[in-house]
Amino acid sequence: MAENDARARIIDGKAFAAGLVERVTAASASLKTDHGVIPGLAVVIVGEDPASQIYVRNKGERTREAGMRSDTHRLPETTTQAELLALIADLNADDGIHGILVQLPLPAGIDSTVVLDAIDPDKDVDGFHVVNAGRLAVGLPGMVPCTPLGSVMLLKDALGDLSGLNAVIVGRSNIVGKPMAQLLLAQNCTVTIAHSRSHDLPAICREADILVAAVGRPEMIKGDWIKPGATIIDVGINRVPSADPVKAAEGKTRVVGDVAFAQAAAVAGAITPVPGGVGPMTIACLLANTYVAACRANSVTPVSLDA
Ligand SMILES: NC(=O)C1=CN([C@@H]2O[C@H](COP(=O)(O)OP(=O)(O)OC[C@H]3O[C@@H](n4cnc5c(N)ncnc54)[C@H](OP(=O)(O)O)[C@@H]3O)[C@@H](O)[C@H]2O)C=CC1
Ligand SMILES: Nc1nc(=O)c2c([nH]1)NC[C@@H]1CN(c3ccc(C(=O)N[C@@H](CCC(=O)O)C(=O)O)cc3)C=[N+]21
C-alpha cells in the first residue's frame, strides 16, 4: 500500500477539545451565577525553556477565554527548591485558587517529586501528586492526569465500549504511560505497558487494538508495527527541522508525533494527528479539572461535562 494511501479515520482532537472547552465555559459561568465562585488556576513556571514558555502562555489564554481566573508565576532559573515550596504553600492557602500546575521539567537541582507532592492533592489539577496516583490506582475519585484523561475521552468517542480490547501503551512515565494504563484498565481493556527495555516492540504493538504512543521519539512507530484497523493515539510532541530544506536551514521547525503518520494511517482504522490530536485535549482537560476542583472546594456537585 502506498505511503500516502491514508484510509484511517482522523480523530479530530482539536474539534473535540473545542466542544469540551465550551461545556466547561458554560458550567463555570453557572458556578459563578449560582454560587459566586470563579474557578482559579495558578500556573508556575521556573526558568526560560522556550517551549515551556509557549505552553504556559497558551494555558493562561485558554483559561481566561473560559471565564476563569488565571495567574502565571514566572520564577527565574536560579529559584531554589525552598522558594518554590514557599510559593506552593501560599497557593495551597489561597481560597481563590482551586488548581495549581507546576510546569515540568523543572531545572536541575529541584526535586520534582518533592515539589509535586507539596501541592494540596485537591488542587492538583495535573493529577501528578502521589495521593492522586494512588486514588486512580484503587478507583477512588481524585484528579486524573489531563493527557491520559483526554486520550480516553477520544477513544470512547471513537470506539464506544472499550471492554476486552487489547491496549498497548508504549511509555511508562508517571505523567502519561502509567495513568493511561490505569484508565484503560478501568475501561476493561487488556493492558500491556511497553518501554525501552521491552523485547521486540514491533511484535508487541502488532497485538494492539488500541496503541498509545507516549515515547518522545519522532515517528518511531512504523506502519508495519500496526494491526490493520487498530486505533492509534499519538501522544508524542517532537519538534524536528522543517520538511522544506530551505526553511530547515533557516532554523524553522515542525511538530511530529511518535508515530510515522502517513504509514500508520494506511493501516490503522483511526488515528490522532499531531498537532491537532491529543495536545488540545490536554489543555481542555486542565480546564475541566480546574472547574471540578472549584466545585469540590465549595461543596457544589459538578455538572456533567460529557458530550
Ligand atoms: N500531547 C500532550 O499533551 C503531551 C505530550 N507529551 C509528549 O509525550 C511524549 C512522552 O512524554 P513523557 O511520558 O513525559 O516522556 P518520558 O521521557 O518521561 O517517558 C518516555 C517513555 O518512553 C520510553 N521509551 C523511550 N525510548 C524508547 C524506545 N526506543 N522504545 C520503547 N520505549 C521507549 C521510556 O522508557 P524507559 O522508562 O525504559 O526509559 C519511557 O517510559 C513526549 O513526546 C512528550 O513531549 C507529554 C505530555 C503531554
Ligand atoms: N505540569 C505539567 N503539565 C503538563 O500537562 C505538561 C507539562 N507540565 N510539561 C509539558 C507537557 C507538554 N504538554 C502539552 C500540552 C499541550 C500541547 C498542545 O496543545 N499541543 C498542540 C500544539 C502543538 C504545537 O504546535 O506545538 C497540538 O498538539 O495540537 C502539547 C503539549 C503539557 N505538558
From TrEMBL:
SUPFAM superfamilies: Aminoacid dehydrogenase-like, N-terminal domain, NAD(P)-binding Rossmann-fold domains. It comes from Brevundimonas goettingensis. The keyword NADP applies. Belongs to the tetrahydrofolate dehydrogenase/cyclohydrolase family. PROSITE patterns: THF_DHG_CYH_1 (PS00766), THF_DHG_CYH_2 (PS00767). NCBIfam families: PRK14186.1 (NF010783), PRK14188.1 (NF010785). Its EC number is 1.5.1.5, 3.5.4.9. Pfam families: THF_DHG_CYH, THF_DHG_CYH_C. GO terms for molecular function: methenyltetrahydrofolate cyclohydrolase activity; methylenetetrahydrofolate dehydrogenase (NADP+) activity. NADP(+) binds at G171, R172, S173, I237. Pathway: One-carbon metabolism; tetrahydrofolate interconversion. Residues 145-296 form the Tetrahydrofolate dehydrogenase/cyclohydrolase NAD(P)-binding domain. One of its GO terms (cellular component) is cytosol. InterPro entries: Aminoacid_DH-like_N_sf (IPR046346), NAD(P)-bd_dom_sf (IPR036291), THF_DH/CycHdrlase (IPR000672), THF_DH/CycHdrlase_cat_dom (IPR020630), THF_DH/CycHdrlase_CS (IPR020867), THF_DH/CycHdrlase_NAD-bd_dom (IPR020631). Keywords: Amino-acid biosynthesis, Histidine biosynthesis, Hydrolase, Methionine biosynthesis, Multifunctional enzyme, NADP, One-carbon metabolism, Oxidoreductase, Purine biosynthesis. Catalyzes the oxidation of 5,10-methylenetetrahydrofolate to 5,10-methenyltetrahydrofolate and then the hydrolysis of 5,10-methenyltetrahydrofolate to 10-formyltetrahydrofolate. It catalyses: (6R)-5,10-methenyltetrahydrofolate + H2O = (6R)-10-formyltetrahydrofolate + H(+); (6R)-5,10-methylene-5,6,7,8-tetrahydrofolate + NADP(+) = (6R)-5,10-methenyltetrahydrofolate + NADPH. Homodimer. This is Bifunctional protein FolD. It comes from the Bacteria. GO terms for biological process: L-histidine biosynthetic process; methionine biosynthetic process; purine nucleotide biosynthetic process; tetrahydrofolate interconversion. Residues 11-126 form the Tetrahydrofolate dehydrogenase/cyclohydrolase catalytic domain. The keyword Nucleotidyltransferase does not apply. CDD domains: NAD_bind_m-THF_DH_Cyclohyd (cd01080).
